[in-house]
Amino acid sequence: MGLVLFNTLAREKQPFTTLEEGVVRMYNCGPTVYNRQHIGNFRAFLFADVLRRWLEYLGYEVRQVMNITDVGHLLDEDAGEGEDRIEAQARREQLDPFEISRGYADTFFSDLERLGVQPALVYPRATDHIDEMVEMIEGLLEKGYAYESHGDVYYDVTKFERYGRLSGNRLEDLEAGARIAVREEKRHAADFALWKSDPHHLMKWNTRFGPDGFPGWHIECSAMARKHLGDRLDIHTGGEDNVFPHHECEIAQSEAFTGQPFATFWLHTKFLQVDGGKMSKSLGNVYTLDDVEERGFSIRALRFALVRGHYRQPLNFTWQVLADAASALESLDDLVLRLRRAVEGQGAADDDAAGAALVDEARATFEEGMNDDLNVSRALPALFGLRTHVLEGALGRDAARAALEFVERANGVLGVVQLEPEDLDDDVEASIRAREEARARKDWAEADRIRDELLAAGIVLEDGPEGVTWRRK
Ligand code: AMP
Ligand code: ZN
C-alpha cells in the first residue's frame, strides 16, 4: 500500500499524488515571531519535519518552505481585530518591532537545530515580500474579489463560491455568529483585510493603497507560497487552529488570483495539551526547550515524545509522558548498540534466513504504519520488536547488519536515536583506561570505584567479550 494522507479538504484519507512526478512542493505555516515558541508549536513543526523525512524515505525530492510571520498577525485573528502581535511585544519589551522579530526568529532557528529538524529550503519572511503581496492584492481588486474601503483593502468572501469548503463554515452562520459588530468598512462580517492602513503602525509601507499600510496575515502566506513554490502546491500544513480563518482565507486568495486549485493536500496537526488542558501563561505551563532541559530531560527525548504518537491524535503532555519517552528512547539507543555488537561479533552465524525474515517483517510494519497517514505509533512497534529479537539472540550477523541498516533508515525519519557513540571527554577516557589497568592487576575495589564514579557522571560501562563498551545513561 502506498502513502495515504488525511486531507482536511476531503475529510478523509486519500492516496498521495504529486503534480510533478517525484517532486513534492510543501508549504508549512511557520511561527509568528513575537515570543519564544513553546513545545506545542513544536508539535506542529516536528510533524512537518517527519513528513518531509518520510517523503524523502519514499524517494521524493521535497521542496519545503516554511514562512516566518513578522508582521500583520493580529491579537484577535478570528475577528481580524486587535494590535499586531509583534508590535504589542515590541511595546512590552520597549524595543523596535524589527528587533523583536529578528531576535525571536533567531531563537526559533536555534530551537529547530536543537530539535534536530532538517532545515527547509527557505524560510521566507513576510516583511521581505511586500511587493509580492501588493501584486496579488492588485490582482484580486482587478478581478473583483476585493474592494478598497477607508484606506484598507478587504477580500469579498461572497465572491468566492468555495469559501468555507475547507473548514465547513457557511457564510450565513459566520454572519450570524460574528462576535464583533460588522465594521462599517466591511460589506460582510466574514470579509477579511488584505491590507490595512494605520499611521500609528510602526512597520508600514507606502504603496498604491496609501502611505501607511501593512499586510493581513493571510495574504502573506498566499504570496510567499506562490513566490517560492509556484501557483500550486502538493501539501500545505499547519496546526489545527490554522484551518479557519487562516487556511480558508489563503485558499480564497490564491485560487481567486491564479484561477487554479491551490494545495492538493491540507494537513493539520492536533494541538498539544498540557496537564489535560490548554497551555496558558496564567497556568505557568507554557514550556520551552529550556524548561525541558532544566527538568533534566534531553531535547532528544522531547522530540521523541512529540513525534511518537499520531499527529491527529490528541497528545497530553505531562512530565511523566516525557519520562516515558526518555526511557523508550533508551531502549532504541540500546537496540542500535546491540546490533552493532552483533554485526561485529564473532559467535553469530553469518547466514540465517529466519533472522532475515524478521528484519523484512519489521521493515514492512514500519513502512505500513508510516504510509498510513504518518501513523508513527503504528510504525514504532517494528523497532521495539526487533530489540526483542536481538535480546533473544535471534539475529545472526548478516541479519543484524540488515537490521542495523533498516534502523538507521527508520531513524533518518524519526531523528531520535543516538547513532554514533559520542566522543568521550578526555577525563572519561582516562578513567576507563585507569579502570582497565586496575582490572589487569586484579584491584577489583578500585575498578568498581571508577565504574561507580562514571555512573554518577551518567556513563554506563558494559563489559563484553570484545572489551568495554559504554553508553550514556
Ligand atoms: P503561531 O506562532 O501562533 O503562528 O503558531 C505557530 C504554529 O504552531 C501554528 O501552525 C499553530 O497552529 C501551531 N500551534 C500553536 N499552538 C499549538 C499547540 N498547542 N499544539 C500544536 N500546534 C500548535
Ligand atoms: Zn500561514
Describe the structure.
Strand 16 (459-464) and strand 17 (467-472) form a beta hairpin. The two termini are 39 Å apart. The model has no long low-confidence stretch (mean pLDDT 93). The strands form 6 sheets. A 5-stranded antiparallel β-sheet has the order 7-8-9-11-10. It folds into 3 domains: 4-269, 3-Layer(aba) Sandwich (Rossmann fold), CATH 3.40.50; 313-414, Up-down Bundle (Four Helix Bundle (Hemerythrin (Met), subunit A)), CATH 1.20.120; 426-472. It is an alpha/beta fold and 473 residues long. Helices cover 45% and strands 17% of the residues. Helix 1 (39-57) crosses helix 9 and helix 15 (426-440) packs antiparallel against helix 16 (444-456). It contains 16 helices and 17 strands. It has helices at 39-57, 85-93, 97-114, 130-142, 171-176, 217-229, 243-258, 289-294, 299-307, 319-344, 353-371, 376-379, 381-391, 397-414, 426-440, 444-456, and strands at 4-7, 12-15, 23-28, 61-66, 74-76, 81-84, 146-149, 152-155, 192-197, 205-207, 210-215, 233-239, 263-269, 272-274, 315-317, 459-464, 467-472.
